[in-house]
Amino acid sequence: MNFNIIVLIKQVPDTRNVGKDAMKSDGTVNRTALPAIFNPEDLNALEMALRIKEQIPNTVVTAITMGPVRAADILREALYRGADKAVLVTDKKFAGSDTLATSYILSLAIKKIGRVNLVIGGRQAIDGDTAQVGPQVAEKLNIPQITYAEEVVKVTNDNIQIKRRLERGVELVEVAYPCLITVHSSAPPCRFKNAKKVMKYKKYYTVSEQQNENMNCISILDRVIEEWNASDMNANMEMLGLSGSPTKVKKIDNIVLVQKDNKLLTASEYDIALLMEDLSNNHLLGK
Amino acid sequence: MNNFYTDNPALKFQLSHPLMEKIVVLKERNYRDREKYEDAPENFEDAIDNYDKVLEIVGEIAAELLAVYAEEVDKTGTKMVNNEIIYAKGTQKSHEAMKDAGLYGMSLPRQYDGLNFPYIPYVMAAEMVSRGDTAFANIWGLQDCAETLLEFASDEIKQEFLPKIHKGATCSMDLTEPDAGSDLQSVQLKSTWDENANCWRLNGVKRFITNGDADIKLVLARSEEGTLDGRGLSYFVYDRKHRAISIRRIENKLGIKGSPTAELVFNNAPAQLVGERRLGLIKYVMSLMNGARLGVAAQAVGLSEAAYREAYTYAFQRMQFGKTVAQFPQVYEMLANIRAKTDASRALLYETTRFVDIYKSYSMIAQERPLTPDEKNEMKYYQKYADIYTPLLKLFATEYCNQNCYDALQIHGGSGYMKDYPIERMYRDARITNIYEGTSQMQVVAAIKGVGSGLFLSKIKEYETIEINPEFHDLHNKLISMTVQYEITVAKAIEWGSSSEEYDFNARRMVEMAGNIIMGYLLLIDTCRCVDFKKSATIFIACAQAENSRSADFIKSFNSKLLELFKV
Fold first, then answer.
1. For the whole model, what pTM was predicted?
2. Contact B57 A193 (CB under 8 A)
């Protein structure tokens, strides 16, 4: 029997090097101005899955993403780096989904795959930074979750030991399958793409991509990335998109960080006491 | 994410060369693998797209891993533990990453798990690897040893050894001995047939062996007892699993410290004969060396590129007298010259590689079916130029690499002499390139044949007829007058007789004159395809013209009396 690992991945705008036009005047992210990339911590998650695959025979790593058709780019990238299969979950009805609706959709996709041993995702995506989707998927699947995973300490066919990176140290936990893991950026970086896999999987497209006339596609039936929509997964339409999303954005403020005046302090007792007072008044230090 | 492929458009430019389609069609045998292998290209555009995508992986690994570890690798070097050579940690990581990315066996056929890439993208990869870590370029780059196995070994040997390359087996070419360096005819390592074990046995010493503890070794040994010259030497392959070699020591070198250079003692080491007896040096090692020289040239060009970028960054950061040092004429002259020489040697690198690509593909096709007369002629044509361009390339690319690293360090001033900046390591690494795989002096000995036979001139005349954009006619005219000057100079030298000492003494000058014209043309032709090269072409041709005039003047007034004075 196969050991099934699902890796949840997301295509995100590269918010790490933002220029002036990164935000629109209404305060939303200007996605066209930023290149679309593989969410960084999802790459750490993929690497963790691939390392587990190296230790457990007959492991199948399936990458799933929810997003528009162009998100198939990161599915191909996951295949280039070693994933065995990829599924695009896409539907216009998904537009406007918050973390609750998203986790609902992803949990349906995971259920559709069937028996799953491990679900692994990045801790959070660099566009929303909520870190909610992973835990919510675990709740919906009713399986245990390990967040902030940094390292797989030990893995067997029955359970897994994970080192978690926490604010004030590390924690070692062990859990039986099935379970969900969200991976921290301090976990090992993802391996590079493999030359042969790139040359092979670059020809794999989703059905929607193949239907796109503009695509110079060498269409061979078995070279397909799976693509599921809402009805493929028997979704409750009320729980998708805006109607399934209780989160309402009230207001967005643009915050411009300004450098304040410098303060010169000596190493004298008096100056240090002054600095301590300042820091605790600013809540940078707890009393 | 840094990437040495995407940050350097001069590389991708090579994929658009007009000869590329022929190169790909020949290498892919008209795309016959497309039904059998999912990673095989369907057509020319698909193949180019494959190279582009794979080179992007190489560029990323070179920038994000090799270049990052290079300093640590240089500091740690390699060590010997229990008769095994242990690479620096960074080298091990780089090796693993290149292996996992499927970048070993790049040019081997798919049946041996290779990528079946032509030399052009392979050499581009080699250039980037060297730009990242010049020492690692040896460990990764010795995969081209496999080419001689592919070309000359029996099917059994190919089946046994070639698939190992893709899995990350490293290679070495064991040629040099304490008394056989440039003069390989003096190789003494003894090979005797062992009837009982049904294999050859190697006994003796090899010295200065790059990557001495490799998994697969190609060894030049004397199989014919009583012989004294190259005709008694044969070519063998040895598998490290036999553990029949003791490593006497690892050399303590000036540079490329991440690449172990070892002295080895062969203790009755079992080995298999590659190809036919007695053809070891004459045929197989010559072929091996030509491949290796191309590899060292790629290494040198990659290192030149790295040095240029270090110098450029520093020159625009360092403030003196209220401005950046890049604004001072003596400094920007050095910078522009490094750029021009790097571009010129790169142009020669890929021109040579194209010749090698075409003739090597034909020679492999000839093993499958007889070539048509036209194909035979074409193969001969490209082989002829590949053979004569290779030493010319090795000479220029490695000498320029040294000059470039020298100037790039100079631009750094005192800081360049410190270990705080990578240029100090690059300067040391550069120094080997014009020594190993044949010193520059040996390259001149090989390349002078292209002067005497008129081969360089005939190629120059071919370049002369290529249509040049009228905008660049002044450059073209300069090259035409340089050619006239070259012909007059060579005619004068030939009067001494091409086997005279006077002729030999001036060989390098003549070879360099030819090389300057050739590189000038290549840059000019490149400029017509992409105007980005205009600056380098103009600067290079201006400097080359002055240099050629100096050599022409020297030869014009040279005589045997002067020659006598040079003798020590």
1. 0.93
2. yes
